[in-house]
Amino acid sequence: MAYDVFISHAWSYSERYVGVIRLLDTATQNLSWFSYRDYSVPRNEPIVAPNENVRISVLKDRLKEQIRQASCVIVPAGMYVNERYWIQTEIDLALNGFMYPKPIIGIRRRNQQRTPVELEQQADVMVNWNSNSLAGAIYQVCQR
């Protein structure tokens, strides 16, 4: 079964997004029951708008559409501190933007001692930076 995921990210921190994709790809190779489809906002579709307010509005609409198609939202914890506004916007959309909330999976960074409390409180599941743990969490939250 293919699981539809949205990976929270900012293109200025694309290495974290790519890292999550690698975890998901590794899980796909190692676990016969796991595959995924990525519904994150594509990098190759920049938003062109006449001003910042319009750009933010268009981006929020695009985020909502992408999250709508996903079964769960994956949030790398290391992103939360640096991109709090946008990550929280994505979490708020996932939890409040639809008839049924989308589950949130938080991923702790490797060797990270502290994880943002706000993310831990909002996530349905927190996992370590590990492909099998991430795949298991996706399975867990999507079976509800």
Task: Describe this structure as you would to a colleague.
- It is a single chain.
- This protein is an alpha/beta fold.
- Helices cover 50% and strands 15% of the residues.
- The chain is built from six helices and five strands.
- The protein has helices at 14-30, 52-69, 77-82, 84-96, 117-122, 131-142; strands at residues 2-7, 35-38, 72-76, 104-107, 125-127.
- Strands 2-1-3-4-5 form a five-stranded parallel sheet, sandwiched between helices.
- The radius of gyration is 15 Å and the shape is globular.
- The two termini are 15 Å apart.
Number of strands: 5
Task: Output the number of helix runs.
Answer: 6
Averaged pLDDT, please?
89
Please compute the radius of gyration using only Cα atoms. Answer: 15 Å
Can you write the helix and strand succession as a string? EHEHEHHEHEH
Give the CA-based shape: globular
The major pleated sheet works out as:
5 strands, parallel
Distance between the ends: 15 Å
Q: Helical amount among residues, as a percent range?
A: 40-55%
By secondary-structure content and strand pairing, the structural class works out as alpha/beta
Low-confidence stretches: none
Strand content: 15-25%
Major β-sheet strand ordering: 2-1-3-4-5
